[in-house]
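Thread: Newbie trying to understand structure tokens

Hi all, I'm a second-year student working on a class project, and my supervisor (Dr. K.) asked me to get a predicted structure for one chain before our next meeting. I've only ever worked with sequences, so writing a 3D structure as a token string is new to me. If someone could post the tokens and maybe explain what I'm looking at, I'd be very grateful. Here's the chain:
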Amino acid sequence: MSQPAHASIHSLETAKPDFGDLFAWIRAGAADRDRGRILPFDVIRRIRESRLGALRLPRASGGFGVSSRELFRVVLDLAAADPNVAHILRNHLSFVDRFALPAGARGAALKWLPDIAAGAIVGLAMTEQGAGKVGGGVSTYATALTPDGDGFRLNGRKFYSTGALFSDILLVRAAGPDGRNLSVLLPTRRDGVELVDDWDGAGQRLTGSGSTVLHDVRIEADEVLPDEPGSGFGLPYSNTLAQLLVTAIVAGVLRNVAADAADLVRSRRDRNFYYSSAERPEDDPLLQEIVGRIGADAWTAETLVLAAADAHDALSTARARGEPDEALAHHAAVLTARAKLVVDELTLRGATRLFDVGGASATQRARNLDRHWRNARTLASHNPATLKAQALGAWELTGTPLPKLGFF
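---
Reply by user tm_fold:
Sure, no problem. This is what the structure looks like when written as tokens:
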């Protein structure tokens, strides 16, 4: 299948792993996996072997030490191959930035760095159904850690546990014995951990974003990571990178839409509407215009993601030096929120216009082209665009900073 003309800009600039063959293999099976709801365990096994999850891990910890910009180039490539697989890794990549970089590495997180360097995947179990206000990072969790001898027991139920089904290590957000929030890091296969594949969303069907049930799970003292100001979940705008990862996956969907639009026109060969101005569909100026616009939108979306990634690199550099970081964190949050608003709109429009170049036959289930819109719509729904736009407007007009927690 042909690649869009701008694909060459997405190769890594430094001597890092080459994922080209792996991503081509992932893309080749993406439509069939989505159509048949075939969970990508074999794909995640290959991801582990590639050590993709160690890209951002510092070299001193056994990783590749790439920049945020380099990481997001890889994420864009992977999302274009299969957004389900890219989304499975979202919480892992967020964990590495939050807890494995020098400015934040501490306590229980350090224990797992050798495993991550070897390819292990981290999943997240944070969200709970029934919470009044979500996304603030200061929720009162029903999931609770209670003392048990020299360790603890963990009980609770989580939802939206994206990636947990495929993970080796699980980060669980819970209330500690003193009522304050904390993180617990444990092996996913420990007795009492139940991963339920009950996610039934319209899109992103293969991400394992279902329930995590914790039945009296034994937790050792060195597996507990308390929240602290200026570290981990206590950092201002600590979730901005996770938000940008969602937007990058949406942008990857749009790159795939651009490639499929061009391929769809070419596949029609000499079959065109009788009133078209061209015999061959690929010579039809109206179809050329649609394909051209989708390609331009895909380039725009990826450029916005990489610009926001540059802001994350500036933030990481300041934090590593111990320099003031809140203004840089806010700037990264602003660019990330702006990128979301534009990229979501461009992608949803492109995923719809894709069908304008193919006619009714493009809707055949064998092609499964509707997965692009379903995936983009599901990803875009992860956080509210209206509230982000309002927050950006308030900042522009009154100087009110963006919220520091949750979806920013």
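A couple of things are worth pointing out once you decode it. The chain has three domains: 5-119, 124-226, 232-398. The chain is about 45% helix and 10% strand. Feel free to ask follow-ups in this thread.
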